From TrEMBL:
UniProt KW keywords: Hydrolase, Signal
Ranges of residues in domain Beta-mannosidase-like galactose-binding: 803-884
Pfam families: Glyco_hydro_106 (PF17132), Glyco_hydro_2_N2 (PF22666)
GO terms of molecular function: hydrolase activity, hydrolyzing O-glycosyl compounds
Coiled coil, from the record: none
Leader sequence residues: 1-21
Name of the molecule in the record: Glycosyl hydrolases family 2, sugar binding domain
Amino acid sequence: MKIKNIVKLSVLCFAFGNLSAQNPWPKATNTAQPWTRWWWMGSAVDEKGLDKQLTTLSKAGFGGVEIVPIYGAKGFENQYINYLSPEWMKMLQFTTDKAKSLKMGVDMAVGTGWPIGGPQVDENDAATKMIVQTYSIQPNEKFSEKIVIKDEKQKNLKTIKLDIVTAYNEKNEAVVLTDKVTQDGTLNWKPTSGKWTLYAVFIGKTLQKVKRAAPGGDGYTLDHFSPDATKDYLKTFDKAFGNSNYGIRSFFNDSYEVYGADWTADFKEEFKKRRGYDVSQYIKYLVSDEESEIAGRIKSDYRETMSELILNNFTDNFTNWAHSKNSKNTNQAHGSPGNLLDLYAAVDIPESETFGSTKFDIQGLKRNVEDINTKEVPDINMLKFASSSANITGKPLISNESFTWLTEHFKTSWSQVKPESEQIFLSGINHIFYHGTTYTPADVQFPGWLFYASTNFVPENSLWPNIKGLNSYIERTQSVLQSGKSDNEILMYWPVYDQWASPKGKDVAFKIHNIEKWLHPTVFYENLEKLGKSGYSLDMISDKMIGEAKFENQNIQVSKNGGSYKVLIIPQLNYFSESTLKNILDLAQTGASVIFQSEPKDVQGFFEFEKRRNELQSLWTKIPFQQDGNLKSATFGKGKIVLSSDVEKALEYLKIEREKLTDTGLKFVRRKFDGGKYYYIVNHTSKEINQNIPINFTGKQVALMNPENGDFGVAETQNNSVKVQLKSGESLIIKTSETPDNSISKWKYIEKADAPIVLNQSWQLTFKEGGPELPKSKTLEKLQPWTNFTEDLSTQSFSGTGVYTTSFKLNKKADDFVLKFDKLYESAKVIINGQNAGIVWSLPYEINVGKYLKKGKNTIQIEVSNLMANRIRYMDQNKIQWRNYHEINFVNIDYKPFDASNWKVQPSGLDGEIQLIPIHYSK
């Protein structure tokens, strides 16, 4: 039997690894620790409660909190505090002071609920939409109808305004009549011949309010396309904060979920300035569903303008404002109708989001269909939009709102969280925010206050005693992933104009919830998937970034502090900017390597498109392609341009090396530091990897580092390969250095394992903490879950910690012993001979315990913590009220009223065999 080499020692200690050797782990800061979104329900907080919860979070290994006030619990209205009121700011100051004393950080949302908005957003600054009314006019007919708004909801608005009036005849000839309409809506125009259709565009309002708003936060959502609206909105924060930032590290803005906002008051003028023509004459093509080339071109220009407006008028202003407070800003760009890469790049901390659960091949990993949202699966390539922007522009932190609706409430174990976090890390993200934690007053009974859409990272969770296992793992991993720089070798252009050119619809919002429409069907995505599986590392790049790129030190670089890349890939596309092609040729001229998957077919947009199309073709014909086997290549200045439908063949031709370790099924992300590189490697396959794996850079010394327990040691290497032993579900960090460290001892590889010792004697089962009541103690002839004892109903409803205890004699010698669990529901603290041996919380469920064992009699205690589910089931069956909130109250994963009374009892405790396996390390 092959037993994993990675010794799972105690994860309760923050000290990393073997203290007798120089520690190769980067120094961990609070940003390396996981942070959590902290919902202040009704902002009903007080100093005692804040102190208690921050202290609890700190002890559990959290590095910071992100305050988001939302709706409150019923019955506590007299404790609500209005957002940004003097009392609220006093609570904020207490929070940041307390956090500082605990060496924690504090972020806060610039608004309550989402999307941003509130009482300071008056009608003028509210999210804006175009309202289109059409009229028919007969020849020689005096049009008598008044052109006034018909929508009853819009009639009472003071800001409603007629913006564009354009008439079209049967030949599609257009006449702009905006200045022919009087104040009262009378049209002073009469056609001389033919039938005409009149399009009247009004500046209206979406009337959307902030969703899940907290007290003092209710109001209209913001017009993100108006610079005045953004500045007006932030004035409220200027008034509350004064000259201080109150200790806020970063101001946070949630994902763009503004519905129907497709216009702004000065859109017409901005469009003409940015696109070179008046959209009034072509308004029919923008507002209708006509699927024609001209409609696609007008809509492409419209969408590009919307993208520029949200970037310039909201995102840039938000960043500048945060900097004026000596703080950073964090922004979730996804969901917005803009180029996500440019929007993410315009802030200090780009933030992505995961929603739902992923199907992994890890042995023993639970994924019950009834407990997951089968429609939404996190996608590593969606996450890369945020990490790419950060990597290219040199932002050290990329954050992620993590584990939203990972499973049904109260059914998520830490072992399910781990691979999801690993997928986030593999995308290049390095600053996880749990979604999330609710503030609960000290006198509120179990389960405390809870948020309706989260994995419950709350102290009331019966799994809380072992959360330090998960948190320590994330801290060690992030300490590495926040070190040095990203080490991706490829840039791949995102063909956003292919998305914008669709004649269907109006605005195009790039949401995480509809990637099956805008991302998955593209050749771009196909390339991302193929190259990732083949072992290439890449970042996505925008037109704007290509325009800022330079070729220096034999690499393409956009920002001085950002990543440097060996090659730029332009995937197969239809629409391409002639100015971007010119910028690419300039890069090639100075030495860059470029791969085109196909010849660009056409330019985007409407303005002088025939002239620009000729420019595009003229630039393309300047590339002196020659047939070279199955591809075409050209020397262009000092650079090389390759044309090939097979991108991997083109990369091989350019001698861009892939990491062949992915042939084993392993996944990786790579970082570089002065004098070396880190490889973070994960085994999400169903098999054990026990072999030498190739890596492209070995340096003079290779060390292995275990992020689960902090162990490290010098690896065995041979011909640019490293020996690794990884079981299904395990991960490892490989540190390659040009400078050897002789103080580090050798890594302990498993050479063989002896026959296991099965602990099949009787066990004592007692209950330590939890509820609704502690079941009675039992003597077990056979190890089994406490939920098997159906004659004792308290075991069916109990959520908390049960302690399995036994003694055994040990006479056998070995280098170490592995304690292996057959089935564990859900995590456990192991105590051997009175000593804390560590936490078992992730697959495979095993831990090295040799150092705690002695010859002769040994006593072992296994403190197992189960899910909250059984206790919640009991409460719903007995109609004990625990959810009573304003707004959405509480829903299940399908957004239907929550009711656990019909749930099956979730198995809890230990089941199957527990083995003690003697292992021997290679010498």
